[in-house]
Amino acid sequence: MSEAEDFNQQKPTKTSKQHNVLPIWGNEQTMNLNPLILANIQGSSYFKVHLFKLKTYHEVVDEIYYQVKHLEPWERGSRKTAGQTGMCGGVRGVGAGGIVSTAFCLLYKLYTLRLTRKQVNGLLQHSDSPYIRALGFMYIRYTQPPADLFDWYVDYLDDDEEVDPRAGGGGPTTIGALVRQMLIKLDWFSTLFPRIPVPIQKQIEQKLAEHNRQMAPVKQPAANYRTGNASNYNQNRPDVDRREHDDRDKRDYGDGDKDRYAKDRARRDDRDRDRNRDRDRRDRDRDRERYRDRSRDRHRERSRERVRHRSRSRDRRFR
Fold this sequence. Notes:
Blueprint: H1 2-20, H2 35-43, H3 45-50, H4 57-67, H5 102-112, H6 117-124, H7 130-143, H8 149-153, E1 162-163, E2 173-174, H9 175-184, E3 187-188, E4 191-192, H10 198-215, H11 248-253, H12 258-317
Antiparallel strand pairs: 1-2, 3-4
Helix pairs in contact: 4-5, 5-7, 6-7, 7-9
């Protein structure tokens, strides 16, 4: 009887340890990252040399505190996507590489450590840097089942700590708005988060709307992720259209930054005109070359006719 009691006393401890293990959802080899980003991470000297020396969770957290300044996958200005469209465009994250960011290198380093549930919660509640917390939320978004995302994020939906995810700054938002974007959008700057099945996405939107109704009398909605203007963020309406990829230009430059969006559209129009002008020039050059070839052929034919005519005249003269 005493042995059975001892077994029952040890069993909760075993369950507690199992509960602390955080299983990985999706592709365990790639962390569900874009293949181009993953290849650049694994090939970067920062990851292979410097981060290889970091062996513990706390060492990596310290590195995040000192080195991470934004949350984009590429360093600013290192990736050229001008003139690329479709699957080679910027939003897909394929077709043209660049210098992968410190943030994504450290995100993948955290993945190689196989964090426990306690360690992930430690990232989410860290008080030293909002970027430590943001990488914790990104770790969850990439590695946890879509059905569990809302339960992970619900306590932070109205967190008002400020963070600037854009490379070079200029796009401040709050942790709460950042978390909401991870729940309702697939796009993350020039890459994509893992897709959420449609039924689970609908459940998340319903839970988010219910949360907003409950919190509306208590506090104002969190600031809009792109504009930073709380009055423009209607949290009670369905946000299905927010998952569309056709708004990527508007997303990249912000709803309120009409001038930059107009300039970008003007640059695209200029590129189209230049492309058409080059095509016309090539057509003219090709036609000119064909005309020269035909003229050259006619001249050669006339020369041969003259030679034959002279030969016949000479033959008649000597008969």
